[in-house]
Amino acid sequence: MAAPMDKVADHHKQKQICASRPAYRQGRRDRAVKVYTVNQESRYLLVQGVPAIGVSEDLVKRFALYGAVQEYRILHEYPAEEFTQAYWVKFDRLQAARVAKRKLDEYSFFGGVLHVSYAPEFETVDDTREKLGERRILIANKTRGKDQRVKQQPVSSQQERPKVQASTSTSTLQTEPSRATNYQEGFPPVPSEVETFPALPAPPQYQWYHPAQHQSQWDIPKVASKQGVFPVDYDARLSVHTPNRNQSNRTNKTLPDNQDEDYGPLIGPHLPSKDQSGDSQEGAAGEAVVRPDLVPRQVMAGRKRPAPPGFFGEALEEEKDSKEKDEDGDEVQKTSCPDTGSSSMNRTAVIVRQKMRQISQTRTLSSSSRSSKSGSSSSSGSSKDTTRRRI
Amino acid sequence: MFSSQEYLEKKTGQSGVGRLQYLQSLVTEFQDTDKEDCKEQVLANLANFAYDPINYEHLRKLNVIDMFLDSLTEENERLVEFGIGGLCNLALDKQNKEHILANGGVDLVIQCLSSRNEETVLNAITTLMFLTTPASKPAITRLSVVECMLRFQLSKNSRLSNLATVFLEDYCSRQQVEEARQAQTGDAVGISLPAEPQQT
Q1: Predicted interface score ipTM higher than 0.85
Q2: pTM for this structure?
């Protein structure tokens, strides 16, 4: 093994940090003035300043983050400060030791500050030989490509090498303009559609949305859980006094995640009169709405498809037709505020389909991003925006 | 271990100082400054840059290799130490090697073998090993050097003895080693041993 530790070797001592560096070459960390070559580096590390409180395992685990530790031991005879110990750690690979040293030097560990240094004196002859051989191979690998490039262009090598390297800033004028042009060439052609931004769709009318945590332009009635079903007598089209709004917030969280947009109780005090009649919400102006926070599971699952015919009963079918006519006439309004006062799912589905059609027709970048987000629902982004702004 | 070009570009950012420019300012400072401290710091900085081959082009362009060679003859021991460290770091590259050999680097490095500074000697041995080419081998493995290595091999300093052993076993022929051994038992002429390494 190594020479006995009578005196602490120089390279184990921490040198003084250099404080007189001019700002332009002052690095991020304070460092001493020292040169590291392959001789200074080693797979063996000496760790001083480890608190003597039985933390061997933790220490080795921390070192092992950077590479396999082959062996480690505590150096009891090494002169150490009171209540600290010196450890000897052997790594499998030099590179791991380098990284570990860089990261763990001056590291605060269980109340002590580690001082990590290389310990090449612990190397055997073979270790040293191997270390030097590795360095040779590394350099050979790194410089092989460059040699070939240089050989191919011997004449103009001086001028071309900077170009080949493509460093960020070079002192030769030649490379800078060529890099500038390269950047310009490198940009993909801007599509003409993007440059002139098409008119955005009319902003949704904020008052349609409830400032609840989750938004939805659906007025799908919701159930308390995924396994919930509509009550027996419940007719989603009719406006029913919402029993509690508290539950709505909670149920929102239990909603299935397969939908992109959030749902929320849609209580729209200012709904247009198109909505179903007679429903009054607690003191909310205008229409009513429905919205019991119930959406049966079947509906959720089939949300992306139109409800199968007959799902809501024949009565609803008729209504659906009539509603469609209304909606066609009010398309703009509807699309901007799809959650009408009516709680009918059919209407919602129709609205959604219209929106999808509209979106697919517009074909702008902004709308395409939105359409990609929404399955069958649209303008969830706008609904999110409006949430905050709503009363 | 080494930086890649993308890493450098990322670190530099758009308005930062590039690697070549930074090295250039280091060299300029070294040439312009009078303060020994600054010279030492700059030389050490350059020597550390010499560890990474990505910088070799820049260093060659800025004649930093010559700077290292010149520093070997300085009086300041630290300058010698950093200079030989820099050479050790970049001696493995073919072009650098040719440049050093063409500028009489071998003799300068052999002179460093007699330094009192442990690191200097170690770096010098390694540099000699790295500079070995079929053409330079006779000069590097001349008798005095081999004798020196034999003495190093007997040193208590394991770093020194390990490097000497590797040198003798891998870079010298048996015959050369034998000759040197015989010469040594005779008279200890040639390079003196450095002081035992535990110095401040």
Answers
A1: yes
A2: 0.57
